[in-house]
Each structure stands twice: as structure tokens, then as C-alpha cells.
Specification:
By secondary structure, the protein is of the alpha+beta class. The chain has five domains: 215 residues, Hypothetical protein af1432 (Orthogonal Bundle); 136 residues, Beta Polymerase, domain 2, CATH 3.30.460.10; 107 residues, Ubiquitin-like (UB roll); 71 residues, no CATH class; 76 residues, ACT domain (Alpha-Beta Plaits, 2-Layer Sandwich). Helices cover 51% and strands 15% of the residues. It contains 32 helices and 19 strands. The strands form five sheets. The protein has a five-stranded mixed beta sheet. Strand 4 and strand 5 form a beta hairpin. The chain is globular and about 90 Å long. The chain starts with a helix and ends with a strand.
Length: 757
């Protein structure tokens, strides 16, 4: 096999000009990778990297990517990301170069182990298990594949870091894919990979993944925001210069080596804020943030230097009293450290300043990979935080949700969480996700404490289990041996760990109750000499208003139903034979007509086609999703449900986000082809200053000027401010835009935006 891998160097005589150009391109890309690696602080193991490249190049020879370039360019690009953007060493670079060999060629993991050793083979094996995206074709397989991803990650964190690099390169080259594949991959990236990158501290990569996903899902909005950012760039630059000039003077006086960078809010973050706050681009005031990165005088003084800088710049600009974030003394669970302070600039706008040392900046850019660069010998506290997180993931994996989407949601709770700091009665500091309740805290201490807790004392005051904790709270959990896990607890729990434990305990209890109930039901029917058949069970379910035998058995086992006289009477009651139901009537050749009609209704759907949404198809074939109410002009996609119906969702709809991640093969690319014939209901939210005659002005604009039919209008005023919602019929997004623009012209209206119900 080694000879095979080195064959490429033998001759170029028989190659065509195109093949020679490709060989040169491959060589150049590999030499760029080697140069990048040689510029790092890692041990220089060039020989094994060259060996891995030659082996992978030979294995993928002749194979092309969808874009038309040689396949080996993809592993080289992934290896470059692993080296430059994540900061990993030779083992990871080799694994990145080899990551598709086992998946796409005849070589096995054993071959890789024989040539490159156990560690590289183990990582390649982990990457092969989760190849082709997280998800397969079926929902049941998807949850399993995601489990594999997380299990492999807990063996060696480098597997997921390389997988994220692989996904980043796929996103950078997504343009060559079919639209339905683009939506699936972009949706999966936004739902799983961006949060994973964030949780592992890869902020730069997380931001790029979000931006690229958004670019493919909402190209028009992306282009609009990009254009507006470019148009306001000069103004921002001036603000940055004016704001930082006195800060530089102060830092120079302190004798620090530093650099000050401007950080512009990402396009995806801007759009997200516009959606959540219902404001236009012009009303996003935190587009600019400032980053001060310094070299500490010595490592012992690093923390003190951060606070010294904070104190000195607070003398120049007034700090916001509620917006000091101290991630220096209490790092985030992914190791992130920085001091965030918000200052009032001379232009009357708040500007966030992030203060970091060079080490902290490396950790912020490269996440956990950067810790290996700085640690000496044993593990660090930060790795302890990672271990804690992985332990939580392992616990969830031990007893996953049966439903794929529930399982993903449970994991996502852990991926997205921001942190708060709470104390035990003895003063021990615990990191908890934001919005954690007393119940979450109980389960974080121990499953037994969680399952027997009856309440809590927060800052020495008695509170219920559903009480939301705040940073700095001191929490004592009260327990009772007689307490059992209650079904309503699932609503109180917000952390992945607590949710997983509660549902696991409830499932075990349900199973035990079902078994008990099955025995009691069988004995009851046997004693009363009643046949245990579908008819008898159906009668009992109807009597107790339950949907099936399983529900009935659970209720009997839990003693919420005690079988008695009513059940006997119901079962022994003589039934008159309903002879009508055994007869079927056939008039003419209805059956044949039905058979002729059916093939027309169920036309074959090709997921690769772009679905055209016409007036006729919207009336007869497709269903508009109730969750997001799409209208012509919205960025939408189609989803083929279990009954082969096509449901149209907005691309940013939360339900669609889950469907893209879990049922990617059922997603259809769609485009509108409507001509203002159909009408759709939309909601417009308005807010402003209350004034006499305002309602009349609104109805004048909507009904008379624009000739739009208002279905419902609700208004509420409070202390001179009004809020309202108008429900009206429109043809498409263009109509909505015209209505919003015309309403904004009314003097006292300050905010107009389309909302869901």
C-alpha cells in the first residue's frame, strides 16, 4: 500500500494538460498546508503529514467533487482549517487528510492503523462513523448517528473539531450543491454545528457557519444587510477612531503592549436581532464593539492587568452600571475569558469593550484547542469544565429520548446555554445554564437529590421547584424520602440533564405501571369470565376515556383506575348486532373510478426538482404551515410529510429548522410563481404615541389608499403609548412592504413590522 501511495511521483508523461494543471494545483495546496504547519509552535512532524497526503491523494485519484475540482482538494482544505483556524497538530492534520478514505475507498480502518498508528486510525474511525452529515435518511437512524457523534467526541474531542472543520469547508463550497441539499445542510449547520462550535469556544467558526447558513437560506436579506453595512462602514470607522484615541493615550501611559480591534456585529446576528426585536437595520445600535488585546506584564498579573485597563478607561467614558461581565474571574464553561464593559461614547451611543490578554484571545478564537498550546503537563481547570459538559452529554446518551427531534432538542438545551453562577449552602460555586430552576440545580447535584426534592431555599427564603435562579443566588435543596418524580416536573426543568433524568424516571415508572396493570387487567377479566379481546379492551377504553390498551394498563397499574362494578356492567352488557356495518354498498363502478383517480393525485415527487408554487397548486395540492403562515415572496421550502403531503414552511420557521436537521431527505426547494390572485392573512404590529384620530388615519391608509381588506384590528394604550395588531388580507410580501412603508409615514407611528399571530 505504501508503494501505491508513492506512485504519483513516478511520471507525468502520460497526463493531459488539464491533468497536469490539476496536479500542480494539488501540489501547491499541499505545500501551502505544510508551510502553515511549519509556522506553528507544534513539533515539526512533516514526514507523517506528507505520508498521509500521498496516501489520501492516491486513494482519491480520479474522483471529482460536485464543483469539478479533484476530490483531494477537500481533505487538504479541511486540514488547513484544522491547522490554521483551530490550531491542532500533526495527528489531527493527518486525520483530516485521511478523513474520507475509509468512507469512499476500499481501504479499512485496519489499513490506516497499520500505516499511521492507533491514534490517527481511532480519529479517522470516529469521523467515518459520523460521515455524510449527522443524519441518514430515516429519523430513527438520525438520532443514532448523532449519538455516535457525541460518543466519539467524548472519547477524543479532536473528532468533533475535525468534523466542524469538515462542515465549515462544505459550507464554504455549498454553492455547487442542489438547492434542496443547500437548505438541508444549512439548516443542519445552524441547528447543530454552529452551537457545537460555540460550546467548544470556536467563536470565529461559529459566526462564519451562521453567516453562511443564513446566506444560503435568505440570500436577499443577506445581500441587503451586507449592502447597508458597507454603506455605513466609513461612519463606523470614524466612530472607532474617535472613541479609541483617548483609550490608546491612556494605555500608552500604562506602558502596556496592546492592539485595539473593531468588531462589527455579524450579518446573521444583525438579522436575528431585527427579527426578535422587530426593528429595522437603522435601529440596531450595537453594530460596533471594541476589543483591547494586551500582553500582560507577567502571567501572574494577567487578571490584574484586565481590571487596571477597565479602571483606566472607565475614567474616560462612563460605564453602564448593569453591563459589566466578568468572564475573567469566572470563565465560561468552554474556557472563554474576557472582561466585557459597556461605555457611553461621545456620540451618545453605548459601545461594548472586550478586554482580553493574548492568551485569552487565542482561547476565544480557537477554543479548547488553544489550551493545549498553553498547558504544561497535567490537565487544567478549563478541561475540567469540558469534562463536566461531556459527562452531561454521556448521561443523556445513556437514556436518550425515543423521538429523534426530542433527543436533538434535549442536546440543544446544553449547546446553547449561557451561564449563571450559584452557590451551595457551604459556599461552593456551581456553574448552571441561564434560566435554570431550583429543580435543575437539584438534579445537577445528584439524581437522588433531584428525584426526592420537595422545594428549595434561595438566599434563605423558601421557593417552589419551578423558581428561576439568578447569578449569585445561594441555593439549598429540601428533600423527602416519600417524594416521587411528578409528570409536571418536565415543564419546570430547563437543563438537558434534568429533562433527560425526569423523562427517564417517568418512562421506567410507566413501564412498571403498565406491567402491573396488564397483570391486574388479565386477572380481572379471567375472574369475570370475560374474553380478553379487542372488543372488551375497546369498551373499557371508551368507558374511561383512554386512547388505547397501553394507556389503560398504565392507569390501572398507577391505581388511577380501579376496576369494579361499572366495568363489569359495561363488558357484560348485551350488544345488539349492528348488521349494517358488515355490508358495503357499491353503486356503479365507483371503485374503478377511484383507482383511476388515485394515480393522478399522487404524482411522483422528485426532491431534486425546484417546486413551483402556483395559485392552482396552492389551492389543490399543498398545505401552508399553520406555525409560520408563509405568503408569496417569503423564503420558503417544502416538506414531504408521512402521508406524502407537501407542507410549505418559511425557511426561518423553528419547526422547519428541526425538519431540515432531522428529515433532510424530505426537504424540497421551492419558488413562488403566483400572480396576485390569491389572498393570505397576515398580522402587522404597530407601536407609537397615542393621539386623537390615529385609528382613523390607520384605517384610511390601509382600507382607502391601499384598498386592503382589514379582517381584525386590536389596539391598546398605556401611559400615552399605543400598541396594536392589524390582521388583513394581502397577495404577497410586496403588499406587506407597501402597507408597512405607508403606515410608517403616519406622524405618531414609530414602529411597524410583520409578525406571526
Amino acid at each position: 500500500m505504501r508503494d501505491k501511495a508513492n506512485e504519483r511521483n513516478t511520471s507525468m508523461d502520460n497526463l493531459s494538460p488539464k491533468e497536469i494543471a490539476e496536479e500542480k494545483m494539488i501540489d501547491q495546496a499541499f505545500h501551502e498546508l505544510l508551510n502553515d504547519y511549519l509556522n506553528t509552535k507544534h513539533r515539526k512532524r512533516v514526514e507523517i503529514i506528507t505520508k498521509a497526503f500521498n496516501f489520501a491523494n492516491q486513494a482519491h485519484k480520479g474522483i471529482k467533487r460536485r464543483s469539478g475540482e479533484p476530490y483531494i482538494m477537500h481533505p487538504i482544505a479541511v486540514a488547513k482549517i484544522v491547522c490554521n483556524e483551530i490550531g491542532l497538530g500533526s495527528t489531527s492534520i493527518c486525520a483530516a487528510l485521511l478523513h474520507d478514505v475509509v468512507e469512499d475507498t476500499d481501504y479499512t480502518v485496519e489499513d490506516i492503523e497499520n500505516i499511521f498508528g492507533h491514534k490517527i486510525a481511532q480519529i479517522v474511525d470516529g469521523l467515518t462513523k459520523i460521515s455524510g452529515g449527522i443524519f441518514g435518511d430515516r429519523a430513527s437512524a438520525q438520532a443514532e448517528n448523532f449519538k455516535k457523534l457525541l460518543l466519539t467526541m467524548s472519547d477524543d474531542i479532536r473528532v468533533i473539531l475535525i468534523k466542524i472543520a469538515d462542515r465549515l469547508h462544505n459550507m464554504r463550497t455549498l454553492g455547487s450543491m442542489l438547492p434542496n441539499k443547500q437548505y438541508k445542510i444549512a439548516g443542519e449547520t445552524l441547528y447543530i454545528y454552529a452551537p457545537l462550535a460555540n460550546r467548544l469556544g470556536l467563536y470565529k467558526i461559529k459566526t462564519e457557519l451562521e453567516n453562511l447558513s443564513f446566506k444560503y437560506e435568505h440570500p436577499e436579506e443577506y445581500a441587503q444587510i451586507e449592502k447597508k453595512l458597507e454603506a455605513t462602514a466609513a461612519e463606523r470607522d470614524q466612530v472607532f477612531k474617535d472613541f479609541t484615541a483617548p483609550i490608546r493615550t491612556q494605555l500608552d501611559k500604562m506602558g502596556l503592549k496592546y492592539r485595539i480591534l473593531a468588531r462589527v456585529k455579524s450579518i446573521y446576528s444583525i438579522w436575528n436581532k431585527m427579527q426578535s426585536k422587530h426593528v429595522p437595520f437603522e435601529e440596531i445600535y450595537d453594530l460596533l464593539a471594541v476589543r483591547i488585546i494586551f500582553e500582560p506584564r507577567n502571567m501572574e498579573e494577567e487578571l490584574n492587568d484586565c481590571f487596571d485597563i477597565y479602571v483606566s478607561i472607565s475614567k474616560i467614558y462612563k460605564p453602564h452600571p448593569d453591563r459589566l461581565r466578568d468572564w475573567v474571574s469566572h470563565p465560561k464553561a468552554n474556557g472563554y475569558q474576557a472582561l466585557h464593559v459597556t461605555l457611553m461614547g461621545n456620540n451618545g451611543q453605548w459601545i461594548e469593550v472586550q478586554i482580553r490578554s493574548e492568551r485569552m484571545n487565542d482561547v476565544a478564537e480557537q477554543g479548547f484547542a488553544a489550551h493545549w498550546k498553553y498547558k504544561e503537563g497535567g490537565g487544567s481547570e478549563d478541561e475540567g469544565e469540558l469534562e463536566k459538559w461531556l459527562k452531561t452529554i454521556k448521561e443523556i446518551l445513556d437514556d436518550p429520548q425515543p423521538d429523534a427531534i426530542d433527543f436533538l432538542d434535549t442536546i440543544k438545551l446544553n449547546l446553547f446555554a449561557s451561564e449563571i453562577f450559584v452557590f451551595t449552602p457551604k459556599g461552593e460555586l456551581k456553574t448552571m445554564p441561564q434560566n435554570s430552576t431550583a429543580l435543575d440545580f437539584a438534579f445537577s447535584l445528584h439524581t437522588d437529590i433531584g428525584s426526592h426534592c420537595i422545594g428549595a431555599k434561595v438566599n434563605h427564603k423558601l421557593v417552589p421547584l419551578s423558581h428561576k435562579l439568578q447569578s449569585g443566588d445561594q441555593v439549598e435543596i429540601l428533600t423527602s424520602k416519600s417524594q416521587r418524580v411528578q409528570p409536571q416536573w418536565e415543564a419546570f426543568a430547563t437543563t438537558a440533564r434534568a429533562r433527560a433524568k425526569i423523562s427517564s424516571i417517568l418512562r421506567k415508572e410507566r413501564k412498571a405501571n403498565q406491567k402491573k396493570g396488564e397483570e391486574i387487567l388479565s386477572e380481572f377479566l379471567k375472574k369475570e369470565e370475560i374474553r380478553h379481546d379487542e372488543k372488551a379492551i375497546s369498551k373499557l377504553c371508551k368507558l374511561h376515556n383512554l386512547k388505547d390498551e397501553e394507556e389503560l394498563q398504565v392507569a390501572i397499574g398507577a391505581k388511577t383506575i380501579i376496576l369494579g362494578e361499572d366495568d363489569k356492567n359495561e363488558l357484560k352488557e348485551k350488544q345488539t348486532s349492528n348488521w349494517k356495518k358488515y355490508l358495503t354498498f357499491s353503486f356503479g363502478n365507483n371503485k374503478n373510478k377511484q383507482e383511476e383517480k388515485e394515480p393522478q393525485e399522487k404524482e411522483k415527487i422528485n426532491p431534486k426538482q425546484i417546486l413551483k408554487l402556483t395559485e392552482e397548486s396552492l389551492q389543490k395540492k399543498y398545505i401552508m404551515a399553520e406555525c409560520c403562515h408563509p405568503i408569496p415572496g417569503d423564503d420558503v421550502l417544502g416538506y414531504i410529510d408521512e402521508n406524502e403531503r407537501i407542507i410549505i414552511h418559511k425557511r426561518q420557521c423553528p419547526i422547519a429548522a428541526k425538519l431540515k436537521s432531522s428529515y433532510g431527505n424530505r426537504i424540497l426547494a421551492t419558488e413562488w410563481d403566483t400572480h396576485k390572485e390569491l389572498s393570505f392573512l397576515v398580522y402587522i404590529y404597530i407601536k407609537g404615541i397615542d393621539n386623537i384620530g390615529l385609528l382613523n388615519e390607520i384605517t384610511q391608509v390601509v382600507s382607502r389608499q391601499l384598498n386592503v381588506n382589514i379582517r381584525k384590528l386590536t389596539m391598546e394604550t398605556n401611559d400615552g403609548i399605543f400598541e396594536g395588531k392589524i390582521q388583513l388580507w394581502v397577495h404577497d410580501v410586496e403588499d406587506v412592504r407597501t402597507i408597512c412603508n405607508n403606515l410608517k409615514k403616519i406622524q405618531y407611528i414609530k414602529q411597524v413590522t410583520r409578525v406571526e399571530e
